[in-house]
Amino acid sequence: MKNDHEAKNDLFQYWLMEMRDRLDDLIEKLPKELQLDYSPDSLLRLESWILKNYATVGDILKDSEKTTLDSLARYVGEVYGRKLKEKWKLYLDVPDNVFYELPVIMVETELVPPICPLTEVIASVDRRRGNYIYNLFQKKMKRMDEKLNKEKVGRFVRGLFNEMRRDESEREPGF
What we know:
Layout: H1 4-17, H2 19-29, H3 42-53, H4 57-60, H5 66-84, E1 87-90, E2 103-106, H6 117-127, H7 132-170
Antiparallel strand pairs: 1-2
Helix pairs in contact: 2-5, 5-6
């Protein structure tokens, strides 16, 4: 008998296996002029459609909209995933974490928190800005670039320091 954690992981694996079909269905269902090409700019077009079709958070959370909401979140996640070359993960690590049991995009560096596309889609309906998801995407990309650059500089400096120590240890005494 599988434990709860394993069962949830199995359901998540099934969710991942049907990713391509769900995304294809979404793109087929939505107007072609949205040009859903997984580019960051497509997030602006998608959010515009979301705001035209959902006046309130309650509207997008209706049982009749669950499949669409899931597909919208999958699309947003795939934009992140393709840009970052990262993968989906079911967040089961910390039960009291806000993303517990939600699919997230995990970034390799621990300096960037998990990205939860579902919460971004829902919040975009609440904020009603038209660029909420896109702006979050851009901010996260900028933050990640800054943090990765700091990591690279840190590795470079540590490498120089180690090289200097090695050079000192190889010198003959008295020089």
